[in-house]
């Protein structure tokens, strides 16, 4: 594989036989405000201008240290940028968008060919810009050009989060202003719907305060997609004047109202989807008598085309963060939210908490979390949550983890035992689609299994547990009306398919559990790697049961590494000696 220095030397030598090319000095890079530690080449070349006239042009080429494995960047120096600034695919700093880096493949053994292709594309963009044959490309990149800074404009500092997709009903569009920014965002625009309620609950969970912000949505607007877009008050008024009368009146009433500041949004149709753009008008101020207007008679709407006609507006392009947008980015299509799964997980220790990661791979599942305990420091190494959650309730901690990842996710929790929940609020359990129990307490598991058998628990249930050193992990799937939980166990409530021999369990073999100093500190030894192997092994079978809507009970056994049991002289069961390690066995009957 060719390294950077060899590639640069070949480019300078071979391309120098075709074009005038040299490497910019440190002084030149300083003057141009380039990174002095990076490599830039200057190339003087020619292209076909209007009417086929040959014209000269200079390009600057940035060669990253990973060249030729990655593409170089080509830009126009300031003197050239002034001539071609308004062309498609040229950004405000002169950078030329040549190819899609994610889809373009190059031959690292041909660095000269890579640069020639880039130069050829850069010239093509200039030629098409002069001929105005690529102006339709402006529409594809409209949102990028909308946020450019034109003619020394100040930074466009309106960071707005959008909680919906498509063109909204103007009557339902609302905005809030956060008292403290949420990451980059100071404003949130929403439709006062279920998504908004969930997000506002998330703000409350994080103790983030906000206040309502006046806003007016104009609906779909047709734009001239050719920049610049450094709009002034009179430009906005002219654009709005071409819209239907009811939209003009809505705009006029909002501008004339006492509400400040004046935020407005509009929808533009790009590539088959509506996108939201917006802007803010500066405050309207009239002091004393103005020529041509009687005192108190000039309105804000009139100011747009008179005394404050040339005041600039501050543009924004709200960043969409909605369930629909998340689905499009992740799976490429939008599903009906009514099909989302509701999971109850009781027991959020090392197995239950890490199971959450796998269950959360479904499309926006709803969670109901049950655990009475706080997260202790000695369990962090094999828990989903980290040090920052220590001494907090496991249930509220997992809720925090989930909604910080996805504020739209519906998560409820109870900091109490699942037995108390069943006694006091059985609907909290039975309103789930699937129930997962990862408590590791045989008596409670047997009792919950009996509730499924008696019909008091009405939804399918998975009960998961592991054997010492995670030599095996098991899950029993119980469907109401099918085979009962107790049928999978022998006398003394021993699972029929354990890998540790029954004699070791009945004799309470001292190496099956470890104990720290203090009362009630006995624990089953296993590590995070073992948990990951178990859950990643068994989850495809859990997923198959859920996706196929299986109605017959069954049991699943994952057998791990048995060498540690052998090394400790812990006897193995007949089942353990009959199966291969790292495999899943399904027990149907």
The coarse silhouette is: flat
Per DSSP E runs of 2 or more residues, the count of β-strands stands at: 23
CATH topology of the largest domain: Rossmann fold
Q: Please tell me the overall pLDDT.
A: 90
Note the beta-strand portion: 15-25%
Which runs of at least 5 residues are low in confidence (pLDDT < 50)? 331-335, 515-521
| Major β-sheet strand ordering | 16-15-14-17-18-19-22-23
Biggest sheet details: 8 strands, mixed
CATH architecture title of the largest domain: 3-Layer(aba) Sandwich
CATH class of the largest domain: Alpha Beta
| Class computed from helices, strands and strand pairing | alpha/beta
Overall domain count:
3
CATH superfamily of the largest domain: NAD(P)-binding Rossmann-like Domain
Question: Level of helix content?
Answer: 25-40%
Q: Give me the number of helical elements.
A: 20
- The N- and C-terminal alpha carbons lie at a distance of 58 Å
Whole-angstrom Rg? 33 Å
């Amino acid at each position: 594989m060719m390294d950077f220095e060899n590639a640069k030397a070949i480019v300078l030598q071979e391309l120098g036989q075709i074009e005038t090319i040299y490497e910019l000095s440190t002084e030149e890079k300083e003057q141009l405000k380039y990174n002095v530690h990076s490599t830039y080449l200057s190339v003087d070349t020619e292209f076909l201008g209007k009417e086929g006239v040959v014209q000269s042009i200079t390009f600057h080429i940035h060669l990253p240290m990973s060249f030729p494995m990655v593409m170089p960047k080509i830009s126009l120096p300031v003197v050239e940028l002034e001539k071609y600034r308004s062309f498609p695919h040229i950004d405000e700093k002169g950078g030329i968008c040549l190819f899609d880096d994610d889809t373009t493949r190059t031959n690292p053994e041909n660095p000269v060919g890579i640069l020639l292709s880039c130069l050829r594309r850069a010239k093509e963009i200039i030629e098409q810009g002069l001929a105005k044959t690529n102006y339709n490309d402006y529409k594809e990149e409209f949102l990028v050009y909308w946020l450019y800074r034109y003619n020394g404009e100040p930074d466009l500092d309106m960071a707005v989060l959008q909680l919906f997709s498509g063109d909204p009903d103007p009557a339902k569009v609302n905005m809030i202003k956060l008292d403290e920014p949420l990451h980059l965002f100071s404003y949130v625009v929403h439709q006062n719907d279920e998504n908004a309620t969930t997000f506002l609950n998330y703000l409350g969970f994080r103790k983030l305060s906000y206040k309502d912000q006046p806003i007016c949505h104009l609906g779909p607007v047709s734009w001239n997609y050719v920049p610049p877009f450094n709009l002034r008050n009179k430009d906005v008024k002219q654009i709005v004047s071409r819209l239907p009368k009811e939209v003009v009146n809505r705009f006029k009433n909002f501008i004339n109202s006492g509400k400040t500041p004046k935020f407005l949004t509009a929808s533009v149709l790009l590539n088959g989807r509506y996108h939201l753009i917006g802007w803010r008008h500066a405050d309207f101020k009239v002091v004393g008598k103005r020529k041509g207007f009687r005192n108190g008679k000039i309105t804000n709407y009139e100011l747009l085309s008179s005394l404050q006609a040339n005041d600039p507006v501050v543009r924004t392009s709200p960043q969409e963060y909605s369930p629909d947008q998340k689905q499009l980015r992740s799976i490429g299509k939008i599903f009906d939210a009514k099909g989302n799964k509701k999971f109850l997980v009781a027991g959020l220790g090392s197995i239950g908490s890490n199971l959450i990661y796998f269950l959360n791979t479904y499309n926006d599942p709803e969670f109901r979390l049950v655990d009475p305990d706080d997260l202790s420091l000695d369990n962090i190494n094999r828990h989903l949550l980290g040090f920052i959650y220590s001494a907090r309730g496991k249930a509220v901690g997992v809720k925090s983890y989930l909604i910080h990842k996805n504020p739209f996710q519906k998560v409820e929790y109870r900091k109490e035992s699942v037995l108390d929940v069943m006694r006091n609020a059985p609907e909290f359990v039975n309103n789930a689609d699937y129930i997962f129990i990862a408590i590791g307490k045989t008596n409670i598991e047997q009792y919950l299994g009996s509730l499924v058998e008696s019909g008091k628990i009405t939804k399918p249930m998975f009960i998961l547990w592991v054997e010492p050193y995670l030599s095996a992990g098991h899950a029993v799937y119980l469907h109401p009306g099918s085979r009962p939980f107790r049928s999978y166990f022998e006398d003394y409530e021993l699972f029929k398919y354990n890998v540790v021999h029954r004699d070791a369990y009945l004799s309470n073999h001292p190496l099956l559990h470890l104990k720290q100093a203090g009362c009630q500190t006995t624990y089953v030894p296993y590590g995070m790697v073992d948990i990951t192997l178990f859950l990643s092994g068994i989850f495809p079978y859990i997923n198959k049961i859920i996706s196929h809507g299986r109605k017959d009970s069954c049991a699943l056994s994952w057998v791990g590494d048995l060498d540690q049991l052998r090394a400790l002289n812990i006897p193995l069961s007949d089942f353990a000696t009959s199966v291969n390690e790292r495999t899943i066995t399904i027990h149907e009957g």
